[in-house]
Amino acid sequence: MEPLPKRHKSPAARHLPPLRTAWWVWGMAAPLYLIGFFYRVAPAVMTAEMMRTFSIGAAALGNLSAFYFYSYVLMQIPTGVLADRWGPRRLLTTGALVAGAGGALFALAPSLGWAYLGRFLIGASVAVAWIGLLKVASDWFPPRLFAMVTGVGLLGGILGAVGAGPPLRLLIDHVHWRIVMLAAAGVTLAVGAAVWMVVRDTPAQKGFVNYSHSGPAKTHRPVREGLAEVLRFRNAWLLFVIPGGLVGAILTFAGLWGVPFLTSQYGMSTARASVLTSVQLVAWALASPLFGWFSDRLGRRKPLYLAGLVTDLAAWGAHWSIFPVCHWRRWWGFWW
Question: pTM for the whole thing?
Fold first, then answer.
């Protein structure tokens, strides 16, 4: 009886993906998250220009910025479902293409209504960036590196926010804001093309062995059933509420109202105020991969989370405790 022929596997197929390949795939997926942060924070340094262009006041400007967040929030659960069913490649490519179209619409908007629609499309589409990036990280990296890779992803996103600070302000001082936003839309479309060409959902699609958790589910449970199961976990509710307070305060200040507050109450130039608000984002960016690496080494998340919350509370408390008393009335008048 003749022996069965041996199956010859390609060298790549015998191994888990090397880290350099994983970083390459992940690195093509990450720019959309950076761009999402850029679009999120950009209005903070363009307040005067946009108010003048659309002939609006502070309330309408706040609403224009908020249209990004309205759709961003609405898309979170659908994004999770699509990430499981479509995979990150299709999800991130579609998100980038829609974000580019929304960015172009915002840049060319002839009226406030069209600008609202552009911001709404941007928020809805870049909402897929973080979930898609986490999906790529979980499928392409070993679990022991997940928190650190996540931290690096957040670092990249906040770099986008920092880019929407002083560098964007310097550009707008010399170029009309519409041209800058149109260029950003073009970059977003290019990112979509790069994602489609390079990113793959699992290592097996590039000839490597999947991690045990990689790959699409063989069966898809009904969305309502899966959501109900998630909501039965107490931590899901805690992680729904707590990050909103932690991150919301920073994004509210650094993302929109910090620059006009500092310019109107302290007489700073817009460029200087944007630098100051960017300090928060830079610290956030630098700490993210560090805390991710440390939590991977420690093997625990909760102690570091609590330490971050306490430090954040102390820092905001110190800010308000040294806030000059003579400015309280002016601060109250600014908001009301």
Answer: 0.73
